[in-house]
Design brief:
Order of helices and strands: HHHHHHHHHHHHHHHHHHH
Distance between the termini: 27 Å
Helix content: over 70%
Oligomer: single chain
Shape: globular
Length: about 525
């Protein structure tokens, strides 16, 4: 690609990556006080609604906006202005119908959906979130259209606006409803209503933006028929939707499966929502590292696709290997760290829910390691899609999901294991997916990646880092044993994290885990290369 196009692409990618980072930070700010406000049981009611919403959202918006973006970009490159407008006019009706159907299903079928998930008190949170499906569908269409024209700013602004509303409206509303004496299900509905308000305002922002930035110039090109455009949108979007929606559907089935199995144990039936919410405390924490690692690695994938198109196997292998090294350097220590100090970190982050945080602590030993495989799954899925093997991630995710459901049935339904089986099944699910993905990446790579060389040093450095964090946290905890329980735990946790970061940073440089070519792809990469003396 030309330097101008390359800069434009990198600028757009940087805008979206920055937006993702901001949204994830806001999400973390939201989840921590939210957990403190509603506790584990309220979090279960929230997740019941959100997991249903996420399935409908993924089905309606995962692949179709990308199809619109691609078709719009092609028409723009060809100078076909009328074609661009026809694409949008055709697609908006598809999204309108999908959104209306999804919202109606959630609103009028809230009771049946809540019963299906084995949590009847999810009724009001499901209803509170129903209008968001319609708004997000229209948002997805507009975002796809603006991105197809090379303009990433409207998408980024609308995403941040959406996240801010969730925090600024959802949290105060949940707190106020609980203060008035309403139940946790109503409090969770108030919190989730912030999502609905956020999607509504984001939709209105994009409508205003598109009306005020309309291209009114005349064009002479003859657009394709609406039927032809619709077929093109579905041909591109449906395979991607199937790939992306598989995990959302499995997560929803998993929620129903875990809650249902807990309720088959007589002594745990009344506390099923509490136990599942405690498990979700841990899930909230392990979902953060993949969110930050994802934009870093994804920025390398388009260059790998370009190299494959040029039939440059050496360059493609270099880029893929670089992506693996960056993932290993970031994800493995994050997962090991969460496994070692994640339990005490939960106690530090949720002071108002100490009992729930303590109960969630043992889950982190498994979920921390699962975090590593979630990051690897995201990367290997993207690499396989880059290789043109879009169907393989669908199959591997389904196999992993089946593994998870079967293990949940066996482990969670065992009274001696109960909810402690959920993080084990989660880890096994992602291990199966990543194991299969790594095999197919190796199979379809022109130059076979050397996994032992890629992962050996980061694993060694991360294990030493974990030992240092464990020792420092233990020493600090014993030294501060006479002070406040919360303060001594917080200080020990922070000491463990600090020791781990220092030890790992030294080992990355000493073991020469990163190469100069890996770092140059990052923002200010050349400065980092000189600072770290990388070769």
């Amino acid at each position: 690609m030309s330097n101008q196009k390359k800069q434009s692409f990198l600028g757009g990618a940087a805008i979206l990556a920055a937006a993702v980072a901001i949204v994830k930070i806001i999400g973390a700010v939201y989840k921590i006080p939210f957990g403190n406000i509603v506790g584990s049981r309220g979090q279960t009611y929230f997740n019941v609604a959100y997991n249903i919403y996420n399935v409908l959202l993924t089905i309606s918006t995962a692949g179709l906006p990308l199809a619109i973006s691609k078709l719009t970009s092609q028409a723009r490159t060809q100078g076909r202005e009328n074609q661009k407008r026809k694409i949008f006019r055709t697609a908006i009706w598809l999204f309108f119908i999908l959104g209306l159907a999804g919202s109606a299903l959630m609103y009028f079928g809230a009771g049946q959906l809540a019963e299906l998930i084995h949590e009847p008190l999810g009724y009001w949170p499901i209803r509170a979130l129903a209008p968001a499906v319609f708004c997000v569908c229209l948002l997805a269409c507009m975002r796809g259209y603006t991105q197809g024209q090379g303009n990433m700013a409207p998408t980024a602004i609308s995403q941040v606006l959406e996240a801010l509303c969730k925090v600024c409206i959802g949290l105060p509303l949940a707190w106020y409803l609980l203060k008035l004496g309403y139940g946790l299900d109503i409090g969770a509905a108030g919190a989730i209503f912030g999502v609905t308000v956020g999607t509504t305002l984001s939709m209105l922002f994009l409508i205003v933006y598109m009306l005020t930035h309309r291209d009114r110039s005349t064009a002479l090109d003859v657009p394709d028929s609406g039927g032809s455009i619709m077929r093109q949108v579905l041909a591109i979007g449906v395979p991607i939707t199937l790939s992306n929606s598989a995990m959302s559907i499995i997560t929803l089935v998993d929620t129903s499966n875990v809650l249902g199995r807990l309720k088959t144990i007589p002594e745990l039936a009344d506390s099923a929502a509490t136990l599942f919410g405690q498990y979700q405390f841990g899930m909230n924490l392990i979902n953060l590292p993949p969110s930050f690692v994802f934009p870093v690695t994804m920025s390398l994938i388009p260059f790998a696709a370009a190299a494959i198109t040029r039939k440059d196997a050496v360059e493609a292998d270099r880029i893929v290997s670089s992506a693996f090294r960056i993932i290993a350097v970031l994800a493995i220590p994050a997962g090991v760290g969460l496994s070692v100090v994640g339990g005490s970190a939960l106690v530090m982050l949720y002071p108002a829910r100490q009992a729930d945080a303590l109960a969630a602590g043992p889950h982190m030993r498994w979920l921390g390691i699962a975090c590593i495989f979630i990051c690897l799954m995201n990367l290997t899925n993207a690499i396989l899609q880059t290789y043109g093997k879009e169907r393989i991630p669908i199959i591997t995710v389904i196999i992993g999901g089946i593994t998870k459901v079967v293990l949940n049935y066996l482990l969670v339904g065992n009274p001696d294991i109960n909810i402690h089986g959920a993080p084990i099944s989660t880890l096994c699910c992602y291990v199966v997916i990543v194991g299969l993905n790594l095999f197919f990446v190796w199979k379809y790579s022109a130059k076979k990646p050397h996994y032992v060389q890629l992962f050996a040093k980061p694993v060694l450095a991360s294990l030493l880092m974990g030992a240092a964090a464990w020792a420092a946290a233990g020493f600090a905890g014993r030294a501060l044993a006479g002070s406040s329980v919360y303060l001594s735990n917080a200080a020990a946790t922070l000491c463990g994290i600090l020791a781990g970061v220092i030890v790992y940073a030294v080992l990355v440089i000493a073991l020469r885990i990163l190469r100069a070519e890996d770092v140059r792809s990052m923002p200010h990469g050349e400065k980092l290369v000189r600072l770290l003396h990388l070769k």
